[in-house]
Write a structure and sequence with these properties.
The chain is α/β, with parallel strands linked by helices and 496 residues long. It folds into two domains: 238 residues, Aldehyde Dehydrogenase, Chain A, domain 1 (3-Layer(aba) Sandwich); 193 residues, Aldehyde Dehydrogenase, Chain A, domain 2. Helices cover 43% and strands 18% of the residues. The chain is built from 17 helices and 18 strands. The strands form three sheets. It has a seven-stranded mixed sheet with strand order 1-6-5-4-7-8-16, with helices on both faces. Strand 4, helix 5 and strand 5 form a beta-alpha-beta unit. Helix 9 crosses helix 10. It is globular, with a radius of gyration of 26 Å. The two termini are 49 Å apart.
Length: 496
Amino acid sequence: MATVHSDSAIAPDDEGPGEAAAVVSFAVERARLVQPSWAQNSAQERAAIARRFSSLVLKSQEQILDVITQETHKNRLSAFEEVLDVTLLAAYYAGTAPKLLRPVRRRGAVPGLTRTTQSAQPRGVVGVITPWNYPFTLPASDSLPALLAGNAVILKPDEATQRSAALVADLLAQAGLPEGLFQIVHGSGPSEGAALVRAVDFVQFTGSTATGRLVAAACGELLTPMSCELGGKNVMVVLSDADVEAAADGAVRACFSTSGQLCVSMEKIYVHRDLEDAFTQAFVRRVQAMRIGPGSDWDIDMGGLISTEHLHKVMSHVEDAVAKGARVLTGGRRRPDLGPTFMEPTVLADVSEEMTLSSQETFGPVVSLATLDSDAAAAEISARGEYGLNASVWSRSQGREVAAQLIAGSVNINEGYTATWGSHDASSGGWRSSGVGARHGREGLLKYTRNQTVSQQRILPLGPSCVLSNASYHALMEKAAPVLGAITSRLPARKG
């Protein structure tokens, strides 16, 4: 049954083939009524709400952590990543949005005679579609910059994590966000999700590459702009000069945070042959020492997977690999004694190309180890496959040189994913089949806007006039063009 969650109203939930479209239409129409007045508020006023929201998230963390761990089965430390991320991102945009949204003077056609200003105008109503793996971070981090840009937001979260999404709505309301600007539609992706894509002015989607292609096709048909983060088969490379112990520590976090159900987590590790034995021993030892189980104890290193269906899918990748000759270095088993969605963190070796997990995203606590023949081979390994989301390089001295050669939208040096993800001032997005557009930074805010250029001509028109014939205008501009070009190329941009 489809419903709308907002700060004051619930849409009718009548059954029928048109229910999804009706629910979405109800939410969008309401959003369009309130969005213009919201856009008229100053960026500073909107930023004040983001600042209060940031504070409220931190103050409400115990409730947030409880809900996240209950809905996703992830361990409490992984859930805290979401609280910390949202708190810091909200504070970042509260401080930067007013500056980024300020109108900017641009070089006019004729200096002194043409005054040109470029401004960022909100798109209107933004549709945000989020998955279950980061049920608090993604609804908040994708919706907040859209709101700060002057838009209204309709959120379609995954059905497995409705309570986490509702917390975002509740905290935004407590922070002072006017009614109707942030609403949540509940229902299936093929119904409510598809209806949302057709109804809004911009789509922000996070999910699988397969679904992302469908969303992109629908947006293309309607000429609706979109941004999406999709799948990944992320690679970690351990170069010949890496600190083995530090790399092994980092690999545990990079592979098994949120039980491996993270788009930017590592699923393949390539280790320079000189360090292969030492790294493998250090890494396997640490994985075997991990504490897995249910509950919200801070000492638990890894929780369960989101569902039994997803567990079966992840285990099928492991079983397929083992049947085709892969070796299990540790893990590889379900743990029904801990709960129906639990499995051991798993490390495999001798994974070959015909195995499913070699190329397909596993999205679980499974990683394969392979040999890096030389440091120079890291670039060639990165170029394999269709994805380009995240990568990790471990090195004492070659990190930046190698990072620049990898095909990935984000590359972490001596870290797995948190260094780039936590750098909110820098954009984060996938290459190739891993996405279009980016979140965070300047781009993460301005993608929710449209550029409007306004030019005011003074004194003389840009063309022949009552005092200039066509021939006279041509002669004048022919001589003036080199001078105008030289002047405009040197004029600095100014705030509007």
